[in-house]
Amino acid sequence: MSQNRVAIITGASSGIGAASARLLAKEGYRIVLAARRVNLLEEVAIEAAGGDALPIGTDVGDLDSINNMVSTTIKEYGRIDLLFNNAGFGRIKWLEDLDPEQEIAAQIQVNLLGVIQTTRAVLPHMIAQGSGHIINMASMAAFIGTPTYSIYAAAKFGVRGFSEALRREVGVLGLDISVIYPGGVDTEFEQLMGADRKTGIKTPDNLKLSAEDVAQAVVRLARKPRRSVIIPGYFRFAIWLNHFFPRLNDWIIERAFTRRERRL
Ligand SMILES: NC(=O)c1ccc[n+]([C@@H]2O[C@H](COP(=O)([O-])OP(=O)(O)OC[C@H]3O[C@@H](n4cnc5c(N)ncnc54)[C@H](OP(=O)(O)O)[C@@H]3O)[C@@H](O)[C@H]2O)c1
Fold it and tell me: What is the DSSP secondary-structure string of 176-212?
């Protein structure tokens, strides 16, 4: 049991973050819920029944906001045992159609720099404690670049590289760094991503994970830290194929998707 342990969850107002908050509260964590929509955070705090939850309005794209969230956590709870860097969004379009500021810079700012800056703000507290666990949210897009996901993939590949290097920096200090790589998950993410598929191609609903599936994987990681979790597990085969047969994957993706979407 994790009585009196403190977990910060970014992106806790919906989807995977909200589901993880509910499950980690049941594990006995006191939860800091961080995202921009404070009204939703307050609802999640109430739903995290039995748990002690603190909603803090936070924009992980803004350094002052991150620092305020971390210092408020320390002031209220005195320690940080788990950080789940989960906040993120995708704008899924051809590169030439993405707005340079609102869609390109903002995705890197939130999905990559948000993870880095929140980690950096939390790290001194974990180092002083001599313990702590950071779980970074990546995606299958951290292993396999697919058309229209270029910026999202750049950010998630970045999260993978950042996490690997950081693990080798802080493991010797008693800290654990994990990365979670889900496939498609049924959340608000898809409605917000702005994809306009001429072919209607998308992940079939029956292949999508639920937010709870991913949250359960987060809880298993929190109980027993591991370097990484890929869910569903069979996606390991796609990663293997992409790694060892990139030309074959280029060929399949260009014919099955890019040529049809670009009407070539
Ligand atoms: N859904 C998928 O298919 C899928 C697959 C693999 C990985 N992921 C990753 O899983 C994570 C969670 O996504 P989800 O599927 O649960 O989608 P979601 O329901 O849209 O949740 C995204 C969360 O991120 C928060 N967020 C976005 N921008 C933020 C910002 N600037 N500052 C603070 N919080 C921010 C949102 O809260 P506010 O709007 O209230 O700020 C929301 O709580 C993301 O990192 C996503 O890339 C998703």
Answer: EEEEEEE--EESTHHHHS----SS-----GGGPEEHH
